[in-house]
Specification:
Largest sheet: none
Helix content: over 70%
Shape: rod-shaped
Number of domains: 1
Number of strands: 0
Oligomer: single chain
Length: 91
């Protein structure tokens, strides 16, 4: 990769002698592009963390619901009531 096409890195040493002098506008433009790339990477990482937390929360709610259903007879009674109503209306 040509050194002039790489993203701006403020830690990279200055251009060697004999290379063209970069204007302040060129340097500012390169810095702006690099900062936008870094912000986009931070945003993608933040979104990934948020999705992971949402999935963990949904899993916790699902486990709590499963624990409640297995300890109570609410689902069985609900099922019996629905089937009983369907059979009464059909017959």
């Amino acid at each position: 990769m040509n050194r002039s096409t790489r993203p701006f890195d403020p830690r990279r040493p200055a251009a060697p002698v004999g290379r063209r002098h970069r204007s302040a506008g060129d340097t500012l433009r390169r810095w702006w592009i690099a900062s936008v790339h870094l912000q986009m990477a931070d945003t993608r990482a933040q979104s990934t963390v948020e999705y992971a937390l949402v999935l963990l929360g949904a899993a916790a709610v699902a486990l709590a619901l499963i624990a409640w259903v297995t300890r109570s007879d609410a689902v069985g009674r609900l099922f019996d009531a629905v089937i009983g109503r369907v059979l009464r209306q059909a017959g």
